[in-house]
């Protein structure tokens, strides 16, 4: 049996497969289908300071082999998570709390409340910054460094993973900015901004007009970004974007990722993550890989 365990930011995981934020709730519904303790970790839905009901519907739509969503961070708020979900989820596996703020200060406040209580914080810096008129925090390297430093200063003991937006000029520059701000790791990609139009109604499909594109079709762009970002920094990288099978996960590992997240495919196949874990085990055995960590960054470029 191949050894699937990995160490992410100093924390041991039993395997590198993690359901991605926003596609797995807090794990309870999936745990009715399989025992989620098989997972390397779970990334929670994005947590905000106050509960949010999200955007008007329709807020999720299929388009070809991708999905568009503009859910708008519907979540019960950080206090509810701490009270109702955290201890159950921690009894199952490692917990990555995904955090979203509407101001830099709010990111710091949420991190301070979570410090020492979860295994990792994942900072979602793709949210619109309401104070700056809708610009995302994750676009300009100077903003990325500032929000990272604020979060890091609020954390005494929990490793900080900064989740990068792919809607940027240079993924290497924002990756380096996160590292400069004190990130212990980075994860990417979040969704690509997109739009789908109902031609009969001549209206955008989503009530929000635009949304984030995810799913199988984004994988080659995501792999390229993980490849570039992992070469720009000396901190571990968590890769995601369009993973539907073990071979897809191996691509991200070879490109430089230490662990991977599976998002949209959880909607197509509720057993996606355990199937990918089993597939990775088979793949490693078939390819003589004794320890999966040996694949990280093992790409041989032409
Ligand atoms: C419905 C939906 C909700 C999401 N919510 C969040 C979120 O709250 N926080 C976050 O960082 N990413 C969120 N994401 C982005 C995913 O975590 C992931 O980065 C992205 O979907 C790419 O991976 P995939 O192609 O495997 O889905 C969401 C994605 C979807 C489809």
Summarize the model shown.
The chain has 9 helices and 18 strands.
Name the CATH class.
Alpha Beta
CA radius of gyration: 18 Å
Helix content percent band: 25-40%
Termini separation (Å)? 31 Å
Number of helices: 9
Percent of sequence in beta strands: 15-25%
Keywords:
binds flavin mononucleotide, about 300 residues, four-stranded antiparallel sheet, TIM Barrel, about 30% helix, alpha/beta
Structural commentary:
With 302 residues, the chain is of the alpha/beta class. The protein has one domain (6-56, 73-195, 214-295): Alpha-Beta Barrel (TIM Barrel), CATH 3.20.20.70. It has nine helices and 18 strands. An eight-stranded parallel β-sheet has the order 3-18-17-12-11-8-7-4. The chain has a four-stranded antiparallel β-sheet with strand order 5-6-16-13, with no helix packed on it. It starts with 5 loop residues before the first strand and ends in a 16-residue tail after the last helix. The model has no long low-confidence stretch (mean pLDDT 96). Bound molecules: flavin mononucleotide (FMN). Flavin mononucleotide (FMN) binds at residues 20-23, 45-46, 60, 67, 69, 71, 73, 98, 124, 163, 190-191, 214-215, 218, 240-243, 262-265.
């Amino acid at each position: 049996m191949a050894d699937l365990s990995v160490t992410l930011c100093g924390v041991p995981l039993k395997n590198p497969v993690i359901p991605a934020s926003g596609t797995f709730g807090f794990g309870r519904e999936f745990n009715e289908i399989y025992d989620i303790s098989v997972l390397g970790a779970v990334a929670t839905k994005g947590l905000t300071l106050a509960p949010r009901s999200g955007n008007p519907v329709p807020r999720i739509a299929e388009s070809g082999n991708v999905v568009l969503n503009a859910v708008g961070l519907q979540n019960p708020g950080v206090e509810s998570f701490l009270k109702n979900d955290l201890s159950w989820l921690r009894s199952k596996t490692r917990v990555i709390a995904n955090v979203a703020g509407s101001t830099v200060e709010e990111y710091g406040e949420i991190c301070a409340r979570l410090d020492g209580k979860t295994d990792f914080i994942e900072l979602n810096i793709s949210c619109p910054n309401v104070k700056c008129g809708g610009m995302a925090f994750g676009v300009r390297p100077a903003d990325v460094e500032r929000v990272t430093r604020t979060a890091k200063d609020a954390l005494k003991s929990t490793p900080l993973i900064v989740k990068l937006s792919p809607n940027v000029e240079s993924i290497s520059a924002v990756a380096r900015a996160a590292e400069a701000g004190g990130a212990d790791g980075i994860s990417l990609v979040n969704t690509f901004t997109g739009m789908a139009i109902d031609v009969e109604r001549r209206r955008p499909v989503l009530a929000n007009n635009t949304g984030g594109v995810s799913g199988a079709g984004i994988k080659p762009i995501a792999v390229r970004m993980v490849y570039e970002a992992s070469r720009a920094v000396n901190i571990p990288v968590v890769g995601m974007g369009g993973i539907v099978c073990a071979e897809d996960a191996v691509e991200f590992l070879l490109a430089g990722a230490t662990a991977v997240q599976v998002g949209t495919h959880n909607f197509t196949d509720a057993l996606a993550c355990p199937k990918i874990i089993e597939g990775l085990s088979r793949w490693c055995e078939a390819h003589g890989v004794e320890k999966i960590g040996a694949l990280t960054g093992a790409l041989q470029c032409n």
